[in-house]
Amino acid sequence: MELSGRGRRLLRAGGVAAVMAVAAGTRLWGLGEPQELVFDETYYVKDAWTLLHLGYESRWPDGANEGWAAGDPSAWTTEPSFIAHPPLGRWVIALGLMTLGPETAWGWRVPVAIAGILLVAVTMLLAGLLFRSWPIALMTGGLLAIDGNAIVMSRVALLDGILALLVVVGFVLVVLDRRWVKRRLAAWREARAGAPPGAGPVLWWRPWLLAAGLALGMSSAVKWSGLYVLAAVGIATVVSDAVLFRRAGVELWPAVVLRQGPVNALLLLPVAAAAHLASWTGWFATDGGYYRHWVEGPDGEAWGGLLAWVPDAFQSWWHYQAAMLGYHESLTVDHSYEAPPATWLVLLRPTSMWFHEGDDGSAAEIIGLANPLIWWASAAAIVALLLRVAVRVAERRPVASEALVLLGAAAGYLPWFLYPERTTFQFYTIVFEPFLVIALALWLAMLLGRPDEPRSTRRVGMVVVAVFLVACAALSVWFWPLWSGTPLGSYAELALRFWFRSWV
C-alpha cells in the first residue's frame, strides 16, 4: 500500500519523535545517580563552580570531593588553578549549576545531557542533508541514541560531548553553505548566459560559512582539538568550491584556490578566533586567573619591537596558551584505562569512570563502552566508505556527501596519531562517532535496496536490516547497567557484560 504525501510526512515526524524520545530517555533517566563526582567531573564541575563565583578557575583543598558530595560546595579558595582546556565547556556546565544548584548531580550533568540529546538531533539532520534520505537519517539518529559511548558521554559532566555537538553543528552549516554556493553559481551562470565564463565570481557574502566558523571556533573553545576540525573544514571548503566552479562552467577553476581560498579563510578564521577568545572573558575581566599578570611578574617577558603595543593581558594570555600546549604535548602519565588511538576502532580499552560495591555484595559501574555491534559495524562501514569513495573518484562520479562523512571522521580521529606518547582515552571517540554511525546507516540503506529493485531482493534486505537493528537494541538493553551505573545483584552479574579481559 502506497502512502500519501501526508502519510509519509506523519511517518517521518513520528520516526523523528520516537528517536528523540529514546535519546532523551537514555540520557535523562536516573541522571542524578550517583550523587557524587565521577572520573574527571572532579575537575570540570568544580572548575565550573569557581568560574561562576570568581570568573576564573581556582584551587580546591584536599577532601573537597567529599564535601561536595555532602552538599557543601564552599571549600574553594581564591588561589588560581592551571587548567588544560579553554573555558567554554565549563561555562556550559556552569549553566546547570547556576540553574539547579550543586546540591544535586542533575545540576552539573543536565547541560551535558541536553548536549547529548541535541547531538542525536543534529547528527540526524546532517545525515538527512547529506543523502536526502529519511531512512538514513532515522537509522543514524536511532543508532546514536542507543549507543553506549554516546549515552555515557551525555551522562557524565565531561567536555567531549559538548565538543562533539559543536563539531557536528559546524558540519551541518558547511553543508548548507555548499548548497548556498551552488545556488549562487547557478544564478551567476544564468545571468551570464552566452558570455565567456572567465574565472568566475568571488563569493564574499556566505552567511552559512560565517556561522560554521562561529560553531567551530566555539568547539576549539571547549577543547583545542576543535582546531583540527576547523583546519580540515577550511581546506575542504576550498576544494568543494573549486569543484562547484568547474561544474558551473568556469574554465579557470584552478584559480578559485587563489581567489576564493583567501576569502574563505577571512570568513572562517576571524569569527572562529573571536568565538574562542570570547570564552576567556571571565579570565580577562578579573585579576585572579592563572598567569593573569604573568607579563608583569618576575618571570614575565613583555613583547617588544612592533608588538610592544599589544596589551599586557593579551601577552599573559598568549603565554598561558603556550603553557597549555606544552602540557598536552608532554602528557604521558600512566593511567590504567589509557587507550592509544590505534585501538579505538576495535574497542580494546573502554574507560571505567565509576565503580561501587555495596555492603550487600551488589556492584555498579559506569564505563564508556560503546554498543559493540554498532561500534564494530560502524568502524567497518567507514573503512568500506573510504574504498567506495576511492572507486567513485576513479570513475569520476560525485562523492561530495561521502567525502564530508570521511572528513568528519578523519578530522576527529587522525590528529591523535601525531602524539603517540600522549595519554589518551577511548571516550575521545565521541567527537567522530556521529560520522561513523552515518556511514553505517548509509550501508544499511543500501541493503534496503532501491524502489526499482525486485521486491524479493528488497524484502531480504529489509529482513537483514531489521534483524541487525533489533540485535543492536537488545545489546543496548543488556549493557544498560554499565552505562547508567544501575546496581546489579553481584559483581559476577556485572562481569558477564565484560566480553574481554581488556574491558575490565
Structural class: mainly alpha
Spans of at least 5 consecutive residues whose pLDDT stays below 50 are: none
**Average pLDDT score:** 92
What number of domains?
A: 2
Number of strands: 2
- What series of H and E elements makes up the topology? HHHHHHHHHHHHHEEHHHHH
How much beta, percentage-wise? under 5%
Helix count from the secondary structure assignment: 18
- Helical amount: 55-70%
Could you give the distance between the termini?
Answer: 50 Å
Sheet with most strands? 2 strands, antiparallel
Shape descriptor reads globular
Radius of gyration: 25 Å
| Largest beta sheet: strand ordering | 1-2
Topology at a glance:
Elements: H1 5-28, H2 41-54, H3 64-69, H4 88-100, H5 105-131, H6 134-145, H7 148-155, H8 160-191, H9 207-220, H10 226-247, H11 255-278, H12 281-285, H13 312-329, E1 352-357, E2 363-367, H14 372-394, H15 400-413, H16 433-448, H17 455-484, H18 491-495
Antiparallel strand pairs: 1-2
Helix pairs in contact: 1-5, 1-6, 1-7, 2-4, 4-5, 5-6, 5-7, 5-8, 5-16, 6-16, 7-17, 8-9, 8-10, 9-10, 9-11, 10-11, 10-15, 14-15, 14-16, 15-16, 16-17
